[in-house]
Amino acid sequence: MHVKYISSDESYQKYLDHLDNEILLHFRDRKIEEANNEIDHLLKKTKENIVKYIKMQFHEDISNFIRTLSKQQILDIQDCLFDYTSIEELKNSVKKHQ
């Protein structure tokens, strides 16, 4: 490809401009890829932190809730604890039995 550009000074300058553009495009593409990787990494870390926070909040909520229950109430719900899909459902069930 470069042989056709070498025949004249103007063509040679066009060839050098073409190479410069190719280098700039390659550099730009590499920077975009690096930025995308960094964004993906940040999103992954953010998601992990959100999940950790939700789990921590859930454990705190359920711990506070369980502290308010009597021993008998705890024994009553122990048999069907895994049937509950949310802490709200569990709270509602306990309220019904009080």
Give the radius of gyration. Answer: 32 Å
Largest sheet geometry? none
Structural class: mainly alpha
Contiguous uncertain segments of 5+ residues: none
Distance between the termini: 86 Å
Summarize the helices and strands and which ones pair or pack.
Blueprint: H1 2-5, H2 9-67, H3 71-78, H4 87-97
Describe the protein's architecture and organization.
The radius of gyration is 32 Å and the shape is rod-shaped. The longest helix is centred in the middle third of the chain and has 59 residues, at 9-67. The protein is mostly helical and 98 residues long. The chain has helices spanning 2-5, 9-67, 71-78, 87-97. The chain is built from four helices and no strands. The termini are far apart.
Concise synopsis of the structure shown:
Helix content is 84%, strand content 0%. With 98 residues, the chain is mostly helical.
Entry keywords:
single chain; 98 residues; mainly alpha
